[in-house]
Amino acid sequence: xxxxxTSGSPSVIDATVHHHWASQLDVTDYMSAGWREHxxxxxxxxxxxxxxxxxxxxxxxxxxxxxIDGSVEDxxxxxxxxxxxxxxxxxxxxxxxxxxxxxxxxxxxxSVPNAYRAAALARAMNEWTADRWFxxxxxxFGLIVAANQTPRQAxxxxxxAGQHERMVGVLMAANGLNKPFGHPAYHxxxxxxxxxDLPVVLHPGGDQGADTLTHPTAxxxxxxxxxxxxxxxxPMMTHVQSMIVQGVFEKYPALRVFVTxxxxxxxxxxxxxxxxxxxxxxxxxxxxxxxxxEYFREHFRIGSxxxxxxxxxxxxxRVIRALExxxxxxxxxxxxxxxxxxDCDTVDDIAERVPDAxxxxxxxxxxxxxxxxxxRARGGARAAEVAVGEMPVTGxxxxxxxxxxxxxxxxxxxxxxxxx
Length: 420
Prior knowledge:
By secondary structure, this protein is α/β, with parallel strands linked by helices. The protein is built from 14 helices and ten strands. The protein has helices at residues 25-28, 33-39, 83-91, 115-134, 151-161, 187-195, 225-230, 233-245, 248-251, 266-281, 292-299, 315-326, 347-353, 359-370, and strands at residues 12-17, 96-101, 140-145, 167-172, 200-202, 257-259, 300-303, 333-334, 403-406, 412-415. The strands form two sheets. Strands 1-2-3-4-5-6-7-8 form an eight-stranded parallel sheet. A two-stranded antiparallel sheet has the order 9-10.
């Protein structure tokens, strides 16, 4: 492939690299003796048995393989499990200067049914990343794994692991409580993240595990990996909408969120609809004081991977036109390769698809501004201005079946509830 100029970007930041362990013993070695005994040792029984698998089961795997070729030297080793080889693949071209390690299927460990084991494994994974990966290459940065089915314990781990300056965010992938991420049960996690100036990173797949009660798509369980892959953005839209509508960003005004693994083309449709419905239904959520899209622009950034590809010859241009209809997307998108996933994107893949004027922001500036890098001045938490969850008297009830709102051009528009 021809190398594409990234328009003067001083260095590329890769916001999503999935690292893994060569053996689960690499991680369990960081657990207490009691937990190691409980989990066992692979190979101590005939047929390689002797240990519980620490990875949660998943019903959906890609038939042709989950990873690109060449991600490991040993064909029997898990993809991206060798720090040296992974560093060579990510940094070898001399264009990427920082990479955020985001875990592979290990990110779903917080959803295992045993909450105590999940918390112990999350802590061990954080220690393993800092020791084995940060120690190998100072261009690697990491995300704190939070066992979110016990949110207060997860908050304690965030405050502990967040003292490491190269932990630049908090990973929320597994849906440990089987609730949308705006639910108040998860709020202790956001409180700790805001306190430490760490963005929360949302990654898809946490609704697919065999041990979770939620579904990866609306309407029921899909039959194939292809369906799950095509609709990966579906639960993410639920989580994003939930965080906004449930008042997370009014309660924690300094909180930042990074969404990765679902592309970017879902954004315009969600907020065109959500903004309109908020106008008519905002009496139910009085703490949402501005358009949902305004919260999104202020509190969210989006990973480019996997960048949406329309099938026509002008497919890239069509996607960009849809994003430009939403406006300001160049300020929201951060380059993410998704390495070593089967559909990962190289720097050149993205440079070919985004306008020249976007490249400096997409490849460097947006991520540099968003994550808690060691050189970043710490912001910390800010006090809430409204009481989220309180229902004030407003005198706005009027006719219970009709609402009206003022449009941006000053006209009064009638909004009629569905079923009227």
